[in-house]
């Protein structure tokens, strides 16, 4: 006859009331019939130690099931609010037990963890993911809040070309738009009274393939007045001389007769130039309005002089005349001229004076202004290992001064790839997560690590996984960051993280594993070291995830909200998936985070001996423990044919198939083998004898076993920490769930 046991105090099992249940009824009927929460407090249900969602409360428990109802403690802060400081831990628990033996110990083990979990829920957690840390939101991410605000690509307010003296040279991976920084100071020249703008941009360190160049949103091919050149790493610029300095002191200085303007220093100390450029303008034109209503020609004359100086600004000789110029015109529109003078290599200062007298009559336009002073250094042989974009623009109505600073390009990075059969390739177009990581680790601007420090075979396999899924990294690092942070951001786009193991960099992906690398039972778990922490949901727990990504469709930020099928969207967690540019990939990662948030909430810690060093981060392990009803464990003490004699008496459940798993010599777990009950409670008969060694001697540890019904032989868990403690090892892990891998 079923029994209902009401435990008022989970820490004192003697304090209980027993009721008779005449028939088997559903979980919901049990809750209603026995008034689980007389004070109308919120409560949850555990079925065999596992939280049972409300949608499944219409099920009828079996005779062998344990059903526990746990009332959640509420705050006493007044006003309906929750004050963790004033919470009184008064928990009423009801256990429905359909058999009389063994319920007390089992209930105590589960409920002790459940009560601890209730305390954890007071603090709450926005989003839980122990294996692969959840990306920070754009509001809390240090990269987003500081770096992205000033990024010329990611910040909408700052989008445009910038000159960042001493700043970071951008590194791009995958396919992305970029508003490239200036590699040198832009400058202008005049020819045939038209202005030309010269700009040199750095697209990325390393090689890339340029898909499209645009000015603002318009392809550069639409501008007939624009010429450009793409310069590959270690090549020189041929379109123009990019090594030009502009004297900031010269800007619209009017020239007068017998008065020198300057001298102005052309180039900084420790630099040498071999050509000087002078820009002069006549803003009102050059003319004289004659009596017939026409324009008569006027002439203006000026002289340019220069002298050598040292790095301290001291003269190294007399002033030398570079040119005596004269210009005549009858025009009432602006006139703009550039004059070039070849000089001996050195540092110079320049002065200019007017030679004729300015006609100040109202009929004349006769003013001349010194607009700019430029020094041309020797053209560098190359700018090193970076891809450059050189642009020469002629000023027209199509090109404003604002749009000229809106040059952008859509490019795909070229990186080396590695194969176990052929080794390293030449740089090729790639969006691969794996080879972006190796570039970060090995490049001169990165970690400069040799092959021996990187697990390349592992990355080769991961690359195949990511490519088959359509997972890529498309992002730009254009602000200061660490090698580890950059590598972590790239790996996170592939649901992975880096670890350092024995001096080697490994990338661990949270993927589905079927074979545990290690098996733990009460025989190799140290006494009193086993603990479980249940992270219970609270009002702060996220029920969905809003993933922000930089869309490759619009080249701006977009977001997508993901949730589990039976979840709402009332409390989404905001995450910024840096490097993701595809909506489908963002949705997959969002669903993964939702699933981890719901299904991975048991944090298990225990200590073992040095065999605890077998698993590493992210490995699947098997945990058998009767306290939690995760199967039964022990040792095999004798083998006779297909019969195994075990160290423990077993609990056999009626009408169920039973299985046993054995620990292999490398510490891993075998496949399950079906067994039947032997002559004694500690004997099992194998349906098929396994083809493996079952050791029962004394020279080493005997073979361990895990026993139970299908699906309840042991708890599978993912390792999230391995900490040596002298001659013992502490292992931290989180329960595994197949629900995590649906996307």
Topology:
Layout: E1 3-7, E2 16-20, H1 27-33, E3 43-47, E4 50-52, E5 66-71, E6 93-97, H2 103-123, H3 142-150, E7 171-173, E8 175-178, E9 181-182, E10 187-191, E11 194-205, E12 207-215, E13 218-219, E14 226-231, E15 244-246, E16 253-254, E17 260-265, E18 273-282, E19 287-289, E20 295-296, E21 298-308, E22 320-329, E23 335-346, E24 348-354, E25 364-365, E26 369-376, E27 386-394, E28 407-415, E29 418-419, E30 423-424, E31 428-429, H4 433-442, H5 456-469, E32 475-477, H6 483-492, E33 496-501, E34 504-509, E35 518-520, E36 531-534, E37 544-551, E38 556-562, E39 572-576, H7 583-599, E40 602-608, E41 620-623, E42 632-640, E43 643-646, E44 658-662, E45 673-677, E46 683-686, E47 704-709, E48 715-725, E49 728-735
Parallel strand pairs: 35-41, 37-39
Antiparallel strand pairs: 1-2, 1-6, 3-4, 3-5, 5-6, 7-32, 8-28, 9-11, 10-11, 11-27, 12-13, 12-28, 14-27, 15-26, 16-26, 17-24, 18-23, 18-26, 19-20, 19-25, 21-22, 21-24, 28-31, 29-30, 33-34, 36-40, 37-38, 40-49, 41-48, 42-43, 42-47, 43-46, 44-45, 44-47, 45-46, 48-49
Account of the 3D structure:
It is a single chain. The chain is mainly β. It is 12% helix and 37% strand. It contains 7 helices and 49 strands. The strands form 12 sheets. Strands 2-1-6-5-3-4 form a 6-stranded antiparallel beta sheet, with helices on both faces. Strand 3 and strand 4 form a beta hairpin. Helix 4 (433-442) runs antiparallel to helix 6. The longest helix is centred in the first third of the chain and has 21 residues, at 103-123. It starts with a strand and ends in an 8-residue tail after the last strand.
